[in-house]
User: What shape does this take?
Amino acid sequence: MDVLVILFLIVLNGGFAMSEMAVVSSRKARLQQGQRKGKPALWLLWPWQMSLGNFCPQFK
Assistant: This one.
C-alpha cells in the first residue's frame, strides 16, 4: 500500500513538473493568438506567464 502511495506521488510530481515546463517554454505570441481564438485554458496561463519575471528573472 505504501509503495502505491509513493508511486502516485512521484507521478503527480512529474505532472506538475511537466506543466511548469510548458508554462515557462510557451511563447507569449502563441498565448495571445490562442486567447483571440477563445481557448479558455490559455486565459488561465496568461497571468502565470506574465508573472514569471517576478519569480524567475532569467525567464524574461
Summary: The chain has one domain: 2-59.
